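Sequence, please.
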């Protein structure tokens, strides 16, 4: 059984939709290729920064919980 012929939504070229084709079903293989993203330092958070953020978030949650649920004496 032949593969269905589709038309790319980006470049309007015809292509065969194969089961092992990566990407979107309405885009040809050229248009489905992932764009190369530049490595930016904002995208990669190292372990130390992640740990510091987790501790800071835990302290925030603790402070909010204490403010909301403290018993007035």
């Amino acid at each position: 059984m032949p593969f269905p012929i589709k038309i790319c939504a980006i470049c309007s070229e015809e292509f065969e939709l194969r089961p092992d084709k990566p990407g979107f079903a309405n885009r040809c293989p050229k248009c489905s290729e992932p764009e190369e993203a530049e490595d930016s330092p904002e995208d990669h958070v190292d372990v130390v920064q992640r740990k510091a953020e987790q501790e800071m978030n835990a302290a925030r949650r603790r402070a909010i919980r204490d403010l909301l649920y403290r018993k007035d004496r």
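The beta strands are 5-7, 14-16.
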